[in-house]
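User: Can you recover a sequence for this backbone? Please restate the input before giving your answer.

Assistant: Of course. Working from this structure:
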């Protein structure tokens, strides 16, 4: 890739998201600040008009916070139960307003079971 070699020569192969070096052309992701299509090809090659990033940094830039990958998003109307390790209908969950999906991380059945277990064998 010509562009990547050009960048490396200029020392511009730096990711603007994580500020680390972009080592290979496969990792390179290009974003144009100004649209160049129909304007000028020079704008396409204008390094001032381009932001470079790792593909993976670019792909994840819509996420908020670092814990997004712990989210389990299932089919509509379902939520993930950490204990069942399965998607269950949201009616099986209690509300939890401070969580991202507004539901408890465990289904009601699991909470019930845990409560009973803790009665039988209290941790002490
Ligand atoms: Zn990066
Ligand atoms: Zn469960």
């Amino acid at each position: 890739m010509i562009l990547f070699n050009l960048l490396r020569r200029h020392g511009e192969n730096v990711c603007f998201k994580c500020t680390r070096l972009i080592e290979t052309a496969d990792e390179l992701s290009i974003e144009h600040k100004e649209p160049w299509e129909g304007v000028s090809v020079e704008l396409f090659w204008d390094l001032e008009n381009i932001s470079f990033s790792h593909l993976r940094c670019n792909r994840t830039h819509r996420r908020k916070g670092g814990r997004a990958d712990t989210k389990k998003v299932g089919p509509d109307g379902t939520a993930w139960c950490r204990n069942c390790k399965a998607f269950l209908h949201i009616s099986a969950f209690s509300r939890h307003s401070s969580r991202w999906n507004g539901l408890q991380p465990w289904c009601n059945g699991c909470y019930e079971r845990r409560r009973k277990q803790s009665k039988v064998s209290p941790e002490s």
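That completes the design. The helical segments are 2-10, 41-45, 55-59, 108-120.
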